[in-house]
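User: Can you recover a sequence for this backbone? Please restate the input before giving your answer.

Assistant: Of course. Working from this structure:
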């Protein structure tokens, strides 16, 4: 059911590989992706057979590597990283509610620390007076500026998360949760960080956990650090400019000729029924129209490499 142009482009890139061997699909992804300098993944990795079958029925291509338990799904768009196979086994109301929660978690994970710094450092007039007085009281005696306080707490959360990943599976999840709570409580009692900063960083960490795809969640966590620095220098204007530049990058990114912001980049309104909302199953198109409207990019690409190709 996949677009023959996309299948041909994937085959061409695989045939042009100059490797002695491929031992994992993660290495293969880095060789055949469109933009190697983009932090966003342009192929989706999964080890669930039901997700691979669903992707094949929706017009996507699956790539398997011998010896690797993961499959690569292409093309990958931004919305595909926030959808799970469990969404389609539930009724449309519960599936839509879960997707809205994930989108809200994405916004909290990216913007919570930056907006907190912008409002407290540059625009305190936007905060109600009672809350502003409470924030000022909680920050009394804190030696670190707000921006260094946020970076320190974010770094500690990432350190605890990475340490939990390297521990045995039975201990890793418990260590991540308990370690974060204990470190946050000790930091507040020691007067290093304010209680409100612990709340903001906790919301940020929970938002990242709610993103189902590991690669998308990791990129979301890493984007927070440059956004924190830009916000600390330019305030809310820096947050807005950074967000616009991020959307500009996403709008130019492609995955095997398919725009990364599909289906919003095209006028395929029928595919919008399976994005932020999960419409009833009979209304969802089996073959998304956006995967079959790659315009002329792949045709020009194939003509460039094979002029005799019709």
């Amino acid at each position: 059911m996949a677009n023959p142009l996309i299948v041909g482009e994937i085959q061409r890139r695989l045939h042009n590989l100059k490797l002695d061997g491929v031992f994992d699909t993660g290495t293969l992804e880095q060789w055949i992706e469109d933009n190697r300098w983009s932090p966003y993944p342009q192929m989706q990795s999964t080890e669930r057979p039901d997700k691979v079958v669903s992707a094949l029925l929706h017009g996507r291509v699956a790539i398997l590597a011998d010896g690797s338990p993961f499959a690569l799904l292409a093309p990958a768009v931004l919305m595909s990283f926030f959808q799970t196979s469990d969404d389609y086994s539930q009724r449309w109301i519960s599936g839509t509610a879960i997707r809205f929660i994930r989108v809200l978690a994405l916004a909290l994970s990216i913007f919570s620390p930056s907006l907190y710094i912008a409002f407290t450092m540059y625009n305190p007039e936007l905060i109600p007076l009672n809350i502003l007085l409470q924030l000022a009281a909680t920050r009394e005696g804190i030696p670190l500026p707000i921006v260094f306080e946020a970076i320190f707490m974010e770094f500690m959360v990432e350190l605890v998360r990475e340490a939990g990943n390297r521990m045995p599976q039975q201990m890793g999840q418990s260590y991540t949760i308990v370690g974060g709570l204990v470190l946050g409580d000790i930091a507040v009692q020691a007067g290093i960080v304010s209680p409100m900063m612990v709340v903001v960083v906790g919301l940020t960490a929970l938002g990242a956990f709610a993103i189902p795809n590991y690669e998308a969640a990791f990129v979301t966590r890493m984007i927070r650090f440059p956004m924190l620095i830009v916000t600390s220098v330019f305030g809310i204007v820096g947050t807005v400019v950074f967000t616009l530049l991020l959307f500009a990058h996403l709008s130019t990114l492609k995955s095997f000729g398919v725009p990364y912001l599909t289906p919003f980049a095209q006028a395929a309104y029928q595919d919008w029924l399976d994005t932020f909302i999960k419409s009833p199953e009979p209304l969802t198109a089996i073959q998304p129209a956006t995967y079959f409207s790659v315009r002329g990019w792949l045709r020009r690409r194939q003509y460039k490499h094979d002029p005799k190709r019709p």
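That completes the design. The chain has two domains: 4-88+255-305, 92-253.
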